[in-house]
Amino acid sequence: MNPRRRPGQGRGGAASAGVGALLALVAASGCAAHLGATAPTCGAQAVTAAAAGASSYLAITTPANHRLDTDFDRFDGPDHADLAAARADLRDIAVTERAFDHDLARLALPAAAASWAHTLASTNEARAQLTSRAANSTSLARLNDLRPALTSANAPVERAVTALRADLGLPPPDTH
Q1: What residues contact 97, with CB distance under 8 A and at least 6 apart?
Q2: Which pTM does this prediction carry?
Q3: 33 in helix, strand or coil?
């Protein structure tokens, strides 16, 4: 997660390299956990499950991150001094965060990744509540008073995103 509050952006080509590295690792070690399985069957199932989890995660983060980029570009740019426009940006940000959480909850992920996905959804929901509160600000001064709290709410989300991505074999989130 970056300061722009992305649910889980990758580093373009690095995401593919991360998935490739994950697949090689799983293929090399996946069967050790399944001593009774034959190597080709065990490796293929583990590789398929790992790749599917990473792929499905990236499929939901890409559109969410694009939408958040658009909203934050407006919020931090031309809408910065326009209360009504800034509030609309924040409302859309909160809706995007909640939609991402909903999509994340529906993914079939390996157990460790699923645990981090739950943590991510919980911390992201807390941040979405704060974003909604900021969207209800009745003045630019009040909205700007909430900016430090909005920024600090990113840290637990960023930790969960980083851990989830690691469990999925993806590189850390892009923080540009």
Answers
A1: 5, 7, 64, 68, 124, 125, 127, 128, 131
A2: 0.74
A3: helix
